[in-house]
């Protein structure tokens, strides 16, 4: 039986044909060095599956919904640690070593700092605010590359089956196990959400949705509001 990989990288996708090949090609050296690379598709209607299959360790088809997809990937993963990576998020050099060091030091989970790629002048400010808020609150977002031990994933009960704020709720659960390792190495993720929706408009929208979530609003209601505004 092959040795269990140290790290499983789980990439949820939905209609990502335009970028999935580039993402998996960037991850190929990590796969060659022993990481497991799982793509979990939630029902793409484009060429995502065909383009991902030659470049991934495995492609898994799942019920739609990012939380469901990430949970499906974790069930199939063989790695000692799990990294949940968005299709438009790029890992920094040495990411595997940084994750391993953080988990060996006694943290059960963690995330990277984030850099937002794009031309809008507010993107560096937004990224700085995201990193500082996360460091102060212990709450991470999926854009920051959440990682954890298999035991922490199981102890948290996996990602909650909800259509929005699943990363926020998962962070809450994981905080009961340990504070996160807040790595200063930066993943780079697309700033398209802020550029397409308008930077200030998107900031206000996300803060409004977060406030309503903290006040107990249903994730289904928040998801409908998010889709309507987008």
TrEMBL record:
One Pfam family this sequence matches: Glycos_transf_2
Compartments where located: Cell membrane
Main subcellular location of this protein, as a coarse class: membrane
CC terms in the record's Gene Ontology section: plasma membrane
Domain Glycosyltransferase 2-like: 8-107
Keyword vocabulary terms for this entry: Cell membrane, Glycosyltransferase, Membrane, Transferase
InterPro entries, alphabetized: Glyco_trans_2-like (IPR001173), Nucleotide-diphossugar_trans (IPR029044), Trfase_2_rSAM/seldom_assoc (IPR026461)
SUPFAM superfamilies: Nucleotide-diphospho-sugar transferases (SSF53448)
UniProt protein name: Transferase 2, rSAM/selenodomain-associated
